[in-house]
């Protein structure tokens, strides 16, 4: 029996309005054109029962205690783990719009202790590559649609950005599990080219590894 090379687990992180969803879709079609099997995922996944509670909270239709909502965001990732693992094992690359770094950054920016925020996500599948779309909160704000949901406030986004950088600084700049900072204040095509460059390296390297790593352990 021939073994299938596993897919790469690629996460896109960044502030609201940094272009994550647009770039994830561009990356998906570019990979498809290159005959790479690819699946798009996004967290929070608002379609599951847990995701529906998160959605109501984000749209301010419900109030949930800070620690409780944090654990729901984490649960929303854990409920996807078997699907992530089987997708990668089947040779399909995952492009994931937000992940555990958003989980820690937003809750810690609200004032919860960083170590506490991290712990429920420890040992989730570790991304092979995290692309951090870095943008200043004032540029993000000027992109429109800002302020519709909870968390879309400049002062909070500033704190979130700092924590993202702190989390990224702990990760390697090269090799497995690396964190790549992408200047997302540039035009769409330039950003897309940068992402493509990073992704191509990871997909190439990833085929040499057996299984996906575990986050923060
Ligand atoms: P979107 O705008 O991407 O739908 O995100 N968030 C996200 C958290 O607070 N914790 C998490 O674990 C995740 C994945 C970031 C909606 C908001 O939810 C925040 C923005
Ligand atoms: Mg949003």
TrEMBL record:
It is an enzyme of class 2 (transferase). Residues 12-193 form the Thymidylate kinase-like domain. InterPro entries: P-loop_NTPase (IPR027417), Thymidylate_kin-like_dom (IPR039430), Thymidylate_kin_CS (IPR018095), Thymidylate_kinase (IPR018094). GO terms for molecular function: ATP binding; dTMP kinase activity; nucleoside diphosphate kinase activity. Pathway: Pyrimidine metabolism; dTTP biosynthesis. Belongs to the thymidylate kinase family. This is Thymidylate kinase. The lineage of its organism: Eukaryota, Fungi, Dikarya, Basidiomycota, Agaricomycotina.
């Amino acid at each position: 029996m021939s073994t299938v090379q596993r897919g790469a687990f690629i996460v896109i992180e960044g502030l609201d309005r940094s272009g994550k969803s647009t770039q994830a879709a561009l990356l998906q079609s570019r990979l498809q054109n290159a005959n790479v099997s690819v699946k798009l995922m996004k967290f929070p996944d608002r379609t599951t029962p847990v995701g529906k509670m998160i959605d109501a909270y984000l749209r301010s239709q419900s109030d949930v205690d800070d620690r409780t909502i944090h654990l729901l965001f984490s649960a929303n990732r854990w409920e996807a783990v078997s699907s992530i693992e089987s997708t990668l094992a089947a040779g399909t690359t995952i492009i994931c719009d937000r992940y555990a770094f958003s989980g820690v950054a937003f809750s810690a920016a609200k004032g919860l202790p960083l170590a506490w925020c991290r712990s429920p996500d420890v040992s989730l599948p570790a991304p092979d590559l995290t692309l951090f779309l870095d943008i200043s909160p004032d540029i993000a704000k000027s992109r429109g649609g800002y302020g519709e949901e909870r968390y879309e406030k400049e002062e909070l986004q500033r704190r979130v950005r700092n924590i993202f950088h702190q989390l990224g600084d702990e990760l390697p700049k090269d090799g497995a599990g690396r964190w790549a900072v992408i200047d997302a204040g540039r035009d769409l095509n330039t950003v897309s080219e940068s992402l493509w460059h990073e992704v191509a390296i990871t997909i190439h390297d990833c085929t040499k590894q057996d299984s996906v790593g575990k986050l923060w352990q």
